Recover the amino acids of this structure.
């Protein structure tokens, strides 16, 4: 007996983009916006990093999601990227927020100082 599997496809409503080319245009425009804003971000927030290092991190973050093919997921990532850019442009994010997201290797966890914090973290 040969089993017949029914192929089920579900039509979903797109978030922003209608097709892959539209999503690609949105991703590239977001990348360009971030790329253009990085020199202002470095100057305004007084980063311990230079513009080239920040652009390398930006490039790495975009390439990390290069394998994503679902248009709805791409749109969601673009919306999150636009929100992050707006927060940086409007100075709603502060230096430590950006550094902890972009340069995770430089973030050092603060050691507990008072008794309650040490107790809760298991040091005493």
């Amino acid at each position: 007996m040969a089993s017949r599997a029914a192929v089920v496809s579900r039509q979903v409503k797109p978030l922003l983009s209608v097709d892959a080319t539209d999503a690609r245009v949105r991703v590239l425009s977001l990348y360009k916006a971030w790329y253009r804003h990085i020199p202002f971000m470095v100057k305004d927030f007084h980063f311990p990093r230079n513009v080239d290092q920040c652009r390398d991190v930006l490039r790495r973050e975009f390439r990390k999601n290069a394998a994503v093919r679902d248009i709805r997921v791409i749109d969601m990532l673009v919306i999150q990227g636009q929100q992050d850019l707006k927060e940086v442009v409007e100075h709603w994010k502060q230096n430590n927020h950006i550094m902890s997201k972009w340069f995770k290797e430089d973030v050092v966890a603060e050691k507990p100082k008072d008794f309650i914090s040490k107790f809760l973290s298991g040091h005493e």
